[in-house]
């Protein structure tokens, strides 16, 4: 497994509380939920590097 880079993230209390609720709904930790949301956003924008198995990064959806 690739090493993870620790960093400090400052959030407004209401944003953190919303993340906690969302994470609990999906049975994830808050850290796992943040990782999930960031990865999904990067994939949608076509900014996530190719996957571990040599898969190409998905292309962003066309915008109207």
Textual characterization of the structure:
The chain is mainly alpha-helical and 64 residues long. The protein has a domain at 13-44. Helices cover 44% and strands 0% of the residues. Helix 1 crosses helix 2 (30-44). The longest helix has 15 residues, at 30-44. It is globular, with a radius of gyration of 14 Å.
Short description:
44% of the residues lie in helices and 0% in strands. The chain contains two helices and no strands.
Structural class: mainly alpha
Task: Compute the CA-based radius of gyration.
Answer: 14 Å
Percent in helix: 40-55%
- The count of strands amounts to 0
Distance between the termini: 38 Å
Beta percentage is: under 5%
- Unreliable stretches (pLDDT < 50, length at least 5) are none
The major pleated sheet works out as: none
Order of helices and strands: HH
Average predicted confidence as pLDDT = 85
Shape: globular
How many DSSP helices?
Answer: 2
């Amino acid at each position: 497994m690739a090493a993870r880079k620790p960093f400090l993230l400052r959030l407004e209390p209401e944003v953190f509380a919303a993340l906690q609720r969302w994470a609990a709904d999906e049975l994830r930790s808050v850290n796992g939920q943040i990782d999930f949301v960031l990865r999904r956003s990067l994939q949608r924008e076509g900014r996530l590097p190719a996957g571990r198995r040599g898969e190409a990064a998905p292309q962003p959806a066309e915008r109207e």
